[in-house]
Amino acid sequence: MTSDGEKIQAPELLRKSLEEVQDLHKKLSRKERGSNNRKEAKRRLAKKYRQIDNQRKDFHFKLARRLFSRYDVVYIEELNVGAMKELWGRKVSDLGFASFVKILEHVAQKEGKEVRKIDRWFPSSQTCSDCSHRYEDLSLEERTWTCEECGSLHDRDLNAARNVLERALSSAEAGVRPSGAAARDATSK
């Protein structure tokens, strides 16, 4: 999500092709080892994975170009993708966040733009973007929450995006280069 409220929906390509992938795995496992039929089944499965990977890369490149057509600097949170995979498994792998960050940095370099990263330990979701009060009991299931101090209702993702932008701008004003990884721009607020 961007700090100006645009929700970017990932295509979840593996999830959409999961039935076909599972079917190809099943067909492969039923072929006799060393046979030409097994080699062909293996080739078909690899082709399907390549197709999914290419579609994901295409989405990532288009998204990176779209972001940099609107923004000169994109701020992202450095995320612990390994820990996220343990929690959410296949869904996190399907998003391909690490490859998106690499593509984002590649496109930024090519277009003379910038990607700046915000520390992963910054509590972007838990901090009210209006009054800076921290709601420490925010669970992962809570998609919206109301600030106990000022009464503001927050969408978790939009609030986090605004906090990432605010953190990045305050770091830039202080002359500190934010550390971290991907999707906020200084011109979007």
Automatic annotation (TrEMBL):
Keyword DNA-binding included in the entry's annotation: yes
One annotated GO molecular function: DNA binding
The entry's keywords: DNA recombination, DNA-binding, Transposition
GO biological process, one term: DNA recombination
Composition bias type Basic and acidic residues, residue spans: 25-39
One Pfam family, short name: OrfB_IS605
Cas12f1-like TNB domain ranges (all copies): 97-164
Matching InterPro entries: Cas12f1-like_TNB, Transposase
Record has DNA-binding as a keyword: yes
Disordered: region residues: 25-47
Domain of life: Bacteria
Probable transposase IS891/IS1136/IS1341 domain ranges (all copies): 3-86
Similarity comment: In the C-terminal section; belongs to the transposase 35 family.
Name of the protein in its database record: IS605 OrfB family transposase
Organism from which the protein derives: Salinibacter ruber
